[in-house]
Model the fold of this input.
Amino acid sequence: MNLGSFTDDNARTRFLDLYERLFQQLWPEPVKAEDVPTTFGPTRVYRAGRDRGRPIVLLSGAGGNSLMWHRYIRPLGEHHPIVAVDTIGEAGASVQEAPVQDGRDGAKWLDEVLAGLNVDAAHVVGCSYGGWLAMNHEIHTPGRIATLVLLDPAGFALPGPRFYGWALAGALAGLAPRALRPRLARLVANGTILETEIMSLIPAAARYRRRLPNALVFSDDELRTLRTRSLCLLAARSALHRSRMTAERVTRLVPAARVEIVPRTGHALPMDRPDLVVERILGFVSEEDD
Done:
Protein backbone atom coordinates (compact mmCIF):
# COMPACT_ATOMS: atom_id res chain seq x y z
CA MET A 1 0.00 0.00 0.00
CA ASN A 2 1.02 3.61 -0.57
CA LEU A 3 1.74 4.36 3.09
CA GLY A 4 4.41 6.40 4.80
CA SER A 5 6.60 4.25 7.04
CA PHE A 6 10.09 3.75 8.38
CA THR A 7 12.37 1.43 6.47
CA ASP A 8 12.34 -1.07 9.35
CA ASP A 9 11.55 -1.40 13.05
CA ASN A 10 15.07 -0.41 14.08
CA ALA A 11 14.79 2.83 12.11
CA ARG A 12 11.46 3.63 13.74
CA THR A 13 12.77 2.91 17.25
CA ARG A 14 15.91 4.98 16.67
CA PHE A 15 13.90 7.93 15.39
CA LEU A 16 11.27 7.84 18.13
CA ASP A 17 13.86 7.53 20.90
CA LEU A 18 15.70 10.59 19.61
CA TYR A 19 12.43 12.43 18.99
CA GLU A 20 11.36 11.87 22.60
CA ARG A 21 14.73 13.01 23.96
CA LEU A 22 14.61 16.19 21.91
CA PHE A 23 11.07 16.89 23.10
CA GLN A 24 12.21 16.65 26.70
CA GLN A 25 15.14 18.91 25.91
CA LEU A 26 13.45 21.59 23.80
CA TRP A 27 9.82 21.94 24.78
CA PRO A 28 9.67 24.52 27.59
CA GLU A 29 6.44 23.32 29.23
CA PRO A 30 4.89 20.07 30.37
CA VAL A 31 3.29 18.41 27.39
CA LYS A 32 0.52 15.87 27.15
CA ALA A 33 0.79 13.47 24.21
CA GLU A 34 -2.24 11.64 22.89
CA ASP A 35 -3.20 9.71 19.78
CA VAL A 36 -6.35 10.73 17.90
CA PRO A 37 -7.94 7.94 15.83
CA THR A 38 -8.65 8.82 12.19
CA THR A 39 -9.51 6.97 9.00
CA PHE A 40 -5.88 7.33 7.97
CA GLY A 41 -4.35 6.09 11.21
CA PRO A 42 -3.69 7.27 14.77
CA THR A 43 -2.47 10.86 14.76
CA ARG A 44 -0.18 12.06 17.52
CA VAL A 45 -0.94 15.45 19.03
CA TYR A 46 0.85 17.32 21.79
CA ARG A 47 -1.09 19.58 24.12
CA ALA A 48 0.43 22.43 26.10
CA GLY A 49 -0.40 25.94 27.27
CA ARG A 50 -3.57 27.12 28.97
CA ASP A 51 -6.43 24.77 29.69
CA ARG A 52 -9.13 27.27 28.74
CA GLY A 53 -9.95 29.25 25.63
CA ARG A 54 -9.92 28.65 21.91
CA PRO A 55 -6.98 26.45 20.92
CA ILE A 56 -4.21 27.23 18.47
CA VAL A 57 -3.53 24.16 16.32
CA LEU A 58 -0.06 23.96 14.74
CA LEU A 59 0.61 22.11 11.46
CA SER A 60 4.19 21.64 10.33
CA GLY A 61 5.63 21.68 6.83
CA ALA A 62 6.65 18.73 4.65
CA GLY A 63 9.35 16.65 6.28
CA GLY A 64 8.66 18.28 9.63
CA ASN A 65 6.83 17.45 12.84
CA SER A 66 5.72 19.06 16.08
CA LEU A 67 9.28 19.62 17.26
CA MET A 68 9.63 22.58 14.88
CA TRP A 69 7.27 24.63 17.08
CA HIS A 70 9.32 24.43 20.28
CA ARG A 71 10.06 28.19 20.31
CA TYR A 72 6.35 28.95 19.96
CA ILE A 73 4.92 26.91 22.80
CA ARG A 74 5.62 29.24 25.73
CA PRO A 75 4.64 32.60 24.16
CA LEU A 76 1.51 31.19 22.49
CA GLY A 77 0.64 28.96 25.43
CA GLU A 78 0.49 31.92 27.81
CA HIS A 79 -2.68 32.99 25.99
CA HIS A 80 -4.20 29.85 24.45
CA PRO A 81 -4.33 26.07 24.65
CA ILE A 82 -1.81 24.74 22.13
CA VAL A 83 -2.18 21.58 20.04
CA ALA A 84 0.79 20.61 17.87
CA VAL A 85 0.01 17.88 15.33
CA ASP A 86 2.32 15.29 13.80
CA THR A 87 0.94 15.17 10.26
CA ILE A 88 -0.04 11.68 9.17
CA GLY A 89 2.44 10.39 6.60
CA GLU A 90 5.37 12.44 7.91
CA ALA A 91 8.31 11.32 10.07
CA GLY A 92 6.85 11.71 13.55
CA ALA A 93 4.82 9.75 16.08
CA SER A 94 1.69 9.37 13.93
CA VAL A 95 1.19 6.02 12.17
CA GLN A 96 -0.29 6.03 8.67
CA GLU A 97 -2.68 3.13 8.03
CA ALA A 98 -4.51 4.30 4.88
CA PRO A 99 -3.28 6.29 1.88
CA VAL A 100 -3.83 10.03 1.56
CA GLN A 101 -4.49 10.41 -2.15
CA ASP A 102 -5.11 14.11 -2.60
CA GLY A 103 -6.04 17.39 -0.95
CA ARG A 104 -9.57 16.19 -0.27
CA ASP A 105 -8.19 13.28 1.76
CA GLY A 106 -5.88 15.68 3.57
CA ALA A 107 -8.89 17.83 4.43
CA LYS A 108 -10.78 14.79 5.72
CA TRP A 109 -7.83 13.77 7.89
CA LEU A 110 -7.55 17.23 9.45
CA ASP A 111 -11.30 17.41 10.03
CA GLU A 112 -11.21 14.07 11.84
CA VAL A 113 -8.31 15.25 14.01
CA LEU A 114 -10.18 18.41 15.00
CA ALA A 115 -13.36 16.42 15.65
CA GLY A 116 -11.42 13.92 17.77
CA LEU A 117 -10.09 16.81 19.83
CA ASN A 118 -13.65 18.13 20.28
CA VAL A 119 -12.58 21.33 18.54
CA ASP A 120 -15.19 23.19 16.54
CA ALA A 121 -13.58 26.63 16.24
CA ALA A 122 -9.80 26.42 16.25
CA HIS A 123 -7.16 28.93 15.25
CA VAL A 124 -5.10 26.89 12.80
CA VAL A 125 -1.51 27.82 11.96
CA GLY A 126 -0.07 25.99 8.96
CA CYS A 127 3.51 26.18 7.72
CA SER A 128 4.16 25.39 4.04
CA TYR A 129 2.53 21.96 3.43
CA GLY A 130 0.58 22.38 6.65
CA GLY A 131 -0.88 25.57 5.20
CA TRP A 132 -1.86 23.67 2.07
CA LEU A 133 -3.66 21.06 4.18
CA ALA A 134 -5.46 23.76 6.16
CA MET A 135 -6.62 25.53 3.00
CA ASN A 136 -7.85 22.23 1.59
CA HIS A 137 -9.85 21.75 4.79
CA GLU A 138 -11.58 25.08 4.27
CA ILE A 139 -12.23 24.30 0.60
CA HIS A 140 -13.60 20.77 1.10
CA THR A 141 -14.80 20.41 4.72
CA PRO A 142 -15.16 23.88 6.26
CA GLY A 143 -16.68 24.56 9.64
CA ARG A 144 -14.14 23.78 12.38
CA ILE A 145 -11.61 26.58 11.81
CA ALA A 146 -12.16 30.05 13.24
CA THR A 147 -9.07 31.67 11.71
CA LEU A 148 -6.19 30.59 9.49
CA VAL A 149 -2.59 31.73 9.77
CA LEU A 150 -0.61 30.60 6.73
CA LEU A 151 3.18 30.74 6.91
CA ASP A 152 4.66 30.79 3.40
CA PRO A 153 2.05 28.21 2.40
CA ALA A 154 2.40 25.68 -0.38
CA GLY A 155 -0.23 25.62 -3.12
CA PHE A 156 0.75 28.67 -5.15
CA ALA A 157 3.61 27.20 -7.20
CA LEU A 158 5.02 23.74 -7.76
CA PRO A 159 8.48 23.15 -6.28
CA GLY A 160 11.13 23.66 -8.94
CA PRO A 161 14.93 23.75 -9.23
CA ARG A 162 15.07 26.91 -7.12
CA PHE A 163 13.28 25.20 -4.24
CA TYR A 164 15.27 21.98 -4.40
CA GLY A 165 18.50 23.97 -4.62
CA TRP A 166 17.48 25.88 -1.50
CA ALA A 167 16.71 22.64 0.36
CA LEU A 168 20.03 21.08 -0.69
CA ALA A 169 21.97 24.20 0.30
CA GLY A 170 20.32 24.12 3.73
CA ALA A 171 21.19 20.46 4.24
CA LEU A 172 24.84 21.04 3.28
CA ALA A 173 25.08 24.17 5.42
CA GLY A 174 23.87 22.15 8.38
CA LEU A 175 27.01 20.04 8.09
CA ALA A 176 29.30 23.07 8.34
CA PRO A 177 31.15 23.99 11.57
CA ARG A 178 28.78 25.64 14.01
CA ALA A 179 30.66 28.96 13.91
CA LEU A 180 29.93 29.29 10.19
CA ARG A 181 26.23 28.44 10.34
CA PRO A 182 24.85 31.92 11.20
CA ARG A 183 26.49 33.38 8.11
CA LEU A 184 25.33 30.47 5.95
CA ALA A 185 21.79 30.72 7.35
CA ARG A 186 21.63 34.36 6.23
CA LEU A 187 23.17 33.53 2.86
CA VAL A 188 20.68 30.81 1.95
CA ALA A 189 17.74 32.30 3.92
CA ASN A 190 17.12 29.25 6.09
CA GLY A 191 17.05 29.67 9.86
CA THR A 192 16.56 25.93 10.38
CA ILE A 193 20.33 25.61 9.95
CA LEU A 194 20.72 27.24 13.37
CA GLU A 195 18.45 24.69 15.04
CA THR A 196 21.22 22.27 15.99
CA GLU A 197 18.97 19.80 17.80
CA ILE A 198 16.39 19.66 15.02
CA MET A 199 19.14 19.24 12.43
CA SER A 200 20.38 16.26 14.45
CA LEU A 201 17.04 14.53 13.80
CA ILE A 202 17.42 14.67 10.01
CA PRO A 203 19.56 11.52 9.58
CA ALA A 204 17.04 9.44 11.54
CA ALA A 205 14.11 11.03 9.66
CA ALA A 206 15.81 10.19 6.35
CA ARG A 207 14.89 6.54 6.96
CA TYR A 208 11.20 7.40 6.72
CA ARG A 209 9.47 6.84 3.36
CA ARG A 210 7.11 9.77 2.91
CA ARG A 211 3.94 8.95 0.94
CA LEU A 212 1.80 12.05 0.69
CA PRO A 213 0.31 13.85 -2.33
CA ASN A 214 2.11 16.77 -3.88
CA ALA A 215 0.85 20.20 -2.87
CA LEU A 216 -0.89 21.04 -6.13
CA VAL A 217 -1.49 24.66 -7.07
CA PHE A 218 -4.92 25.96 -6.09
CA SER A 219 -7.15 27.18 -8.89
CA ASP A 220 -8.73 30.62 -8.82
CA ASP A 221 -12.13 29.03 -8.23
CA GLU A 222 -10.82 27.07 -5.25
CA LEU A 223 -9.29 30.17 -3.67
CA ARG A 224 -12.52 32.11 -4.14
CA THR A 225 -14.30 29.59 -1.89
CA LEU A 226 -12.13 30.52 1.10
CA ARG A 227 -14.28 32.51 3.51
CA THR A 228 -12.37 32.05 6.76
CA ARG A 229 -10.53 35.09 8.13
CA SER A 230 -6.91 34.45 7.22
CA LEU A 231 -3.49 35.94 7.75
CA CYS A 232 -1.01 34.98 5.05
CA LEU A 233 2.64 35.67 5.90
CA LEU A 234 4.88 35.30 2.85
CA ALA A 235 8.66 35.09 2.93
CA ALA A 236 10.35 37.86 0.97
CA ARG A 237 13.05 35.39 -0.16
CA SER A 238 10.83 32.34 -0.54
CA ALA A 239 12.31 29.65 -2.75
CA LEU A 240 8.87 28.10 -3.29
CA HIS A 241 7.01 30.92 -5.03
CA ARG A 242 7.28 34.55 -6.11
CA SER A 243 5.99 36.33 -3.05
CA ARG A 244 4.73 39.53 -4.69
CA MET A 245 2.81 37.58 -7.31
CA THR A 246 1.36 35.31 -4.64
CA ALA A 247 0.40 38.28 -2.45
CA GLU A 248 -1.43 39.92 -5.34
CA ARG A 249 -3.28 36.70 -6.18
CA VAL A 250 -4.38 36.04 -2.59
CA THR A 251 -5.48 39.67 -2.11
CA ARG A 252 -7.48 39.58 -5.32
CA LEU A 253 -9.19 36.22 -4.81
CA VAL A 254 -9.58 35.90 -1.03
CA PRO A 255 -11.18 39.06 0.43
CA ALA A 256 -11.09 37.56 3.94
CA ALA A 257 -7.28 37.30 3.81
CA ARG A 258 -4.74 39.77 5.13
CA VAL A 259 -1.38 39.42 3.42
CA GLU A 260 2.08 40.49 4.56
CA ILE A 261 5.47 39.92 2.95
CA VAL A 262 8.02 39.47 5.73
CA PRO A 263 11.48 40.88 4.96
CA ARG A 264 14.68 38.95 5.69
CA THR A 265 12.94 35.58 5.56
CA GLY A 266 13.10 32.49 3.37
CA HIS A 267 10.72 29.57 3.07
CA ALA A 268 11.64 28.51 6.64
CA LEU A 269 9.86 31.65 7.80
CA PRO A 270 8.85 30.36 11.28
CA MET A 271 12.50 29.61 12.01
CA ASP A 272 13.79 32.86 10.52
CA ARG A 273 11.60 35.31 12.48
CA PRO A 274 9.91 33.47 15.39
CA ASP A 275 9.34 36.60 17.48
CA LEU A 276 7.61 38.40 14.62
CA VAL A 277 5.50 35.37 13.73
CA VAL A 278 4.37 34.93 17.35
CA GLU A 279 3.41 38.61 17.51
CA ARG A 280 1.43 38.36 14.29
CA ILE A 281 -0.38 35.17 15.35
CA LEU A 282 -1.43 36.54 18.74
CA GLY A 283 -2.50 39.88 17.32
CA PHE A 284 -4.55 38.30 14.59
CA VAL A 285 -6.36 35.64 16.63
CA SER A 286 -7.12 38.16 19.40
CA GLU A 287 -9.26 40.11 16.94
CA GLU A 288 -11.49 37.05 16.55
CA ASP A 289 -11.66 36.25 20.26
CA ASP A 290 -12.36 39.80 21.50
Observations:
- The chain has eleven helices and ten strands.
